[in-house]
Specification:
It is built from eight helices and five strands; from the N terminus they run αααααβαββαββα. The protein is α/β, with parallel strands linked by helices and about 280 residues long. Among the domains are: about 80-135; about 145-270, Glutaredoxin (3-Layer(aba) Sandwich), CATH 3.40.30. It has a five-stranded mixed β-sheet with strand order 3-2-1-4-5, covered by helices on one side. α3 runs antiparallel to α4. Pfam families: TraF. InterPro entries: Thioredoxin-like_sf (IPR036249), TraF/TrbB (IPR039555). This is Thioredoxin domain-containing protein.
C-alpha cells in the first residue's frame, strides 16, 4: 500500500509539473503573437486581401542653395564681352610669351569667334530671304532693283509734272544785277519747256534777262512772296486755287529742282495747301 501511495504521489507531482510547463508555454506564445502586426489589426474576416497603395513620394522643396544666383546669370552681351576679353588676354599673353600653348589657345579662341560670326551671318541670310516678302519696293537693296525703281518713279513724276503744268505756272524772281539769277535762268527755262510750264519772269530791279525777254517789273508782289529779297527765287502758282508755293531759293541743279518739285507735288496730293 505504501508503495502504491508513493507512486501516486510521484505521479501527481509530475502531472502538476507538466501542467505548469504547458501553462508557461501558452503564455510565452501568446506574448510573442501579440507582438506581430496581424494581431494588432482590425478583424477582416475571410476577405482579408487588400491591394497595397504605393506611398506618394514626398516632393522636396528647393533649398535656397539649389536656386540659381541671379547675380551670377550673365546676359548675352556680357558673354560676348567676356569672350572678347579672353581673346585679347590670350593674344597679349601669346605676344609676351609665344609658347606653343599660348599661341594654340589664341588660335582656338579666334576660331570660336569666327565660327560664331559665320553661323550668325548664315542665319542672317536665311532670315533675310524669308523676310523679303514683307519688304516694300522702296526697301529693296539690290542695285539693279533700285535702278529700275528710280526709273519708274521718274516716269511717274514726269507724268505728274506734265499734268500739273496744265493747271499751274511758275514765277521766276530775278534781278538783272544778280549773277546767280543769270546762272539759274537756263535751268528754269529748260525745266519749263520739258514739262510745259508757263513762266512769268518778274524783275526785282526792273532789268532784263536773256532767257525770259518778256519779263515784267515787280508791281509789289515780290515784297509779299520774297520779303527777304533773296534772288533768284522760283514759285509755283495756282490761279484757280489762289496759292503760291516756293520751289527754289538760289541756284539749283536740274536734279535738285526736280526733287523739290516732287516734294511740292506730294504736299499738293496731301492737301497741305488747301487750308
Amino acid at each position: 500500500m505504501l508503495f502504491f501511495r508513493r507512486l501516486l504521489t510521484l505521479g501527481f507531482v509530475k502531472t502538476r509539473f507538466l501542467t505548469c510547463l504547458c501553462f508557461m508555454y501558452v503564455l510565452t506564445m501568446s506574448a510573442s503573437l501579440a507582438e506581430r502586426p496581424f494581431y494588432s489589426q482590425r478583424d477582416k474576416g475571410w476577405m482579408f486581401y487588400e491591394k497595397e497603395i504605393p506611398a506618394k513620394p514626398v516632393e522636396r522643396l528647393p533649398r535656397s542653395k539649389d536656386l540659381p544666383d541671379a547675380s551670377k546669370i550673365r546676359t548675352a552681351r556680357e558673354k560676348i564681352k567676356a569672350l572678347e576679353k579672353e581673346f585679347e588676354e590670350a593674344t597679349s599673353a601669346a605676344l609676351l610669351s609665344p609658347t606653343f600653348a599660348n599661341v594654340q589657345k589664341t588660335i582656338a579662341l579666334q576660331r570660336e569667334i569666327l565660327n560664331k560670326a559665320t553661323a550668325f551671318q548664315e542665319m542672317w541670310m536665311q532670315v533675310s530671304l524669308a523676310e523679303e516678302q514683307h519688304k516694300r519696293p522702296e526697301d529693296q537693296d539690290a542695285p539693279r532693283h533700285r535702278k529700275v525703281l528710280a526709273e519708274q518713279k521718274e516716269k511717274i513724276l514726269h507724268r505728274k509734272l506734265k499734268s500739273l503744268a496744265q493747271e499751274t505756272g511758275l514765277f521766276f524772281a530775278f534781278k538783272e544785277s544778280c549773277p546767280y539769277c543769270h546762272a539759274f535762268a537756263p535751268t528754269v527755262k529748260e525745266f519749263a519747256q520739258a514739262y510745259g510750264f508757263e513762266v512769268q519772269a518778274v524783275s526785282g530791279d526792273g532789268g532784263k534777262i536773256k532767257e525770259f525777254p518778256q519779263a515784267v517789273a515787280d508791281n509789289g508782289m515780290l515784297k509779299q512772296l520774297n520779303p527777304q529779297g533773296r534772288y533768284p527765287a522760283l514759285f509755283l502758282a495756282h490761279p484757280t486755287k489762289n496759292y503760291v508755293v516756293p520751289v527754289a531759293w538760289g541756284i539749283l541743279s536740274p536734279s535738285q529742282l526736280l526733287l523739290n518739285m516732287e516734294a511740292v507735288i506730294t504736299a499738293l496730293e496731301k492737301g497741305s495747301f488747301d487750308q
